[in-house]
Amino acid sequence: MTGAASLDALFAGQRAAVEREPYPSLATRKDRIARALDVTIANQQRIIEATAEDFGKRPELTTIAADLLYPVNHLKYALKHVGKWMQPEKRKADFPFNVLGAKAQVFYQPLGVVGVMAPWNLPFALGYAPLAGVLAAGNRALIKPSELTPHTSALMAEITAQVFDPEEVAVVEGGVEVASAFSAMPFDHLIFTGGAPVAKHVMRAAADNLTPVTLELGGKGPVVLAPGADVEKLAGKIVSVKLANAGQACIGLDYVRVHRSQLDRFVAAVKDKFAQYFPDYANNPDVSYVFLEKQRMRLAGVVEDAAARGAGVEVLGAEGTVNLANDPAFPFVLLVDPPMDSQAMQQEMFGPVLPIVPYDTLEDVAQQIRAGERPLALYFFGGTRDEQDFMLRNTWSGGVTFDDVLLHALTQDLPFGGVGHSGMGRYGGFAGFKTFSNARSVARPARIDLMAMEPPYTQKMVRTMRSLLKR
């Protein structure tokens, strides 16, 4: 459905459905999760084609890995574990109530209607992956996909309507006006994935309704190569992951810190691996387009600024930097040793531009990371356990992966989310179930009513209460 009027009608229908069914059964929840899972798998080829049409060019493998497997794995995990998650959690009642039979537990109750705002870079995955936690927790959902990927958004709306009553899950299409109206709806929870500037507007709109928000943003995710790292071996992994989806990923590899003694070797290894992986870059079927002109213009400006500030510029896959903003097959650009106050080190890259900055000590690296906005992900390669522990304790990020990439975000039993400017709240697995639930504290009294302190107050009552004031 399209437009703000349909949004109001859909929200009213879902709110009425919550009133009729405030606590969906396990069978109902599993059925809804299964429908979301099945419709994704059944329409995988159409999703591949729709995203390719929106991007202009996008490898099939990229869509399978990023836009299909990601939500499929979330939904499968929720389907398997939702029965366990729904069980009340036992907690300990305080002394002396516990020894007299008092009981305490946490009862997870559905919130009601949850809004999901998905971005353009993973247009299907980030609309459907949150449904795992939303539906497992017993909620209804309205999804607002990005207007910048209209073919994927239309397909999502079509296939969702095939398997869900609009009072269960529905997709609302539309542009900026609809997105603004969507964020201002009195949802019981709102999850937004995108950039920090837009997130601030979403949060302001949600605040009028006191709607709690989960923000999955991004930031400058550092890749730190320890002094003893095998830079030649790691260059291949960094090139392949950096250029997946043309670097347009919130948990992507934003920039690399490499020990000064290994800088030249690392840059040479990156260039060698790029030439090996992406011959005839502009026409290579494994290359995704940077299809938004404003993104290309922004990236071209970052490169120009770095060059003007004395950074080394290596353009791989194209001749020079003159027409960077004009070609959706934006080349792979290495910015070697850009200043810390350059755009390259202040903006999230979100594209195929890789700043490479030498360091002298890991203490310097940790200090630099702490000085900036807190990123969504941090990657550390090749260090000792002591060096890993140092980075873990002396930096901030939403998540960390050692000696690999993306792993913390792909592990279902780990909560996924950011900190500071990279976001707030967590989803995925049990963490997502809890995010989209009301953790309701439940207490059942002891056999003896110790709280019966009706007047007149006696000295015995005072002595009893004083007896509890001790370590």
From TrEMBL:
GO term, biological process aspect, one: aldehyde metabolic process
GO molecular function, one term: aldehyde dehydrogenase (NAD+) activity
Keywords, in A-Z order: NAD, Oxidoreductase
Annotated active site: 216, 250
Pfam families attached to this UniProt entry: Aldedh
Listed GO CC annotations: cytoplasm
Name the record gives this protein: Aldehyde dehydrogenase
Species this protein is from: Novosphingobium malaysiense
Source organism phylogeny: Bacteria, Pseudomonadati, Pseudomonadota, Alphaproteobacteria, Sphingomonadales
